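# step 3/5: fold
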Amino acid sequence: MTTLAVVQIVLFFGALWLITKPLGGYMARVFNGERTLLDPVLGRLERRCYRLLGIDATHKMRWTSYALALLAFSLASLLFSYLVLRLQGFLPLNPQGFGALQMPADLAFNTAVSFASNTNWQSYSPELSISYFSNMVGLAIHNWASAAVGMAVAVAVIRGFAHKGVDDLGNFWVDVVRATLYVLLPISTVGALVFVALGVPQNFSPYIVATTLEGATQIIAQGPVASQEVIKHLGTNGGGFFNANSAHPFENPSPLANVFTMLLIWCIPAALTFTFGKMVGNARQGWTIFGAMAALACVGVVVVTVAEQAGTPHLAAAHIDIAASALAPGGNMEGKELRFGINGSALFAAVTTGASCGAVNAMHDSFTPIGGLVLLFNMLTGEVIFGGVGAGLYGMLMFAVLAVFVAGLMVGRTPEYLGKKIEKFEVQMAMLAMLALTATVLGFSALSSVAQLPKEGAWALLNTWPGAAYGGSDSAYGAPTGNLNNAGPHGFSEILYAFASATGNNGSAFAGLTANTPWYNTTLGLAMLIGRFMMIVPLLGMAGALAKKTAAPASSGTFPTDTPTFAGLLVGVVIIIGALSYVPALALGPVVEHFELLARATH
């Protein structure tokens, strides 16, 4: 690693650590219903929201009611987005004239599910498919709603550990409203202004037709980018306003904007660990979770940076200088922006795959096999390396339950976490969530790697409409003929990455895969639904069972869960479960590709 890379990593994690305590403490006050500095401004608006929506803010919900409210809200918002996408040709703010031709049924289903599940997987090119209205109303609304839902679930799970002898997890509607008004809204308002100051556009102008210095015609896409960017990153959504996502200069114009973007992605997931500690009455518990997440994150960042800086062996064998110097970045610069270089691209890739965000500032498909392996593993852990907004915390708490269960088996004692006995039901719920995710990733990857279906449907439609003259290319679009499965270990890695990303609600891609087909639009959509709700519902059930238990006082035989030892055990459980579940698949993909690369370089 270069000195610059080390300095950048240290400064980034230092800034994240400084943000965690104040933001986490603020969110604890918000979700505990305590007074905050924003109450004089937002308190009246909050109460009006409750009256408008008919919400009784004093009503408490059992876990089953909480889960049903969540599912109903998510289903309604999913159907709303589907209709907006299919009917965009009849709706306003559509100067490009996009309609149902650009958003056929299978693609609209995939897209609506993607945004409703906080995945923001995009099998389409936004500049060529989505009107301003569809983007702002049909899709961007989920950047707020799905993030607020994730935070609400995390808080409900925290209450499962914090409450003693009660049968409620709070009120879903109150949690969503407070998450939106008191957390997402103020940060997004300030963040959007920062993005505008950094050079990100914010307008409703038609696309600009420009003449280049060579005399060619170029179409420059416009739109309300800054307001979409801030909630895209803050809510760990990741769906780009442009096809190039955060590699586009309008979305991410400078290294400073790049760092600001990464802090937005991880700030709420990191701060929720401190929120957890405050709400359960032991801040050290939260810092232990933070430490485990940070340890996994640091190792991943270092490995992917070293792998990309080392470059590929066949370049060195061809006597090409891949060493970093004052005049050259060295390493593997394929698919990376010069304004970010290897260091900024590798750190961003580790942050976005660790946070179930899916925004990209480099082409992950062009990373070295080891670099790509790290990005895959970040998602295959269940997105707990800080993870998504809310999702990272409740995912790590699932692993914490499994960790104390393993520790209890090792010493022959009934496992406890925060004084509450972890019994059969809690372990069953945690394992149900884990097995559902694993079966989805591996099952759909296996089917897709052997399926023999033609690549047809939405791709062909996109290539026939007049707006295709706008130009641009989406590497997710391949030739309309052939089979679904890509050849070789890298082709398998592309398939595995797609379903790991969808199931982990990440949304990034090894974009060499032709994902915009009826098969992938449907199966990836199903994977997103399973990854979101087959994890949330069992964990709410686990939290509901824990809330009814009373906490036993600590004794000499209690295994402490607020120490570096437990953080190490937690990291071990995450890695072991990930390794045992996915090592065979990873061996067939990036591992084989790495050794093939070494073999080709020696011949």
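# step 4/5: annotate
The chain has one domain: 3-19+26-601.
# step 5/5: archive (pending)
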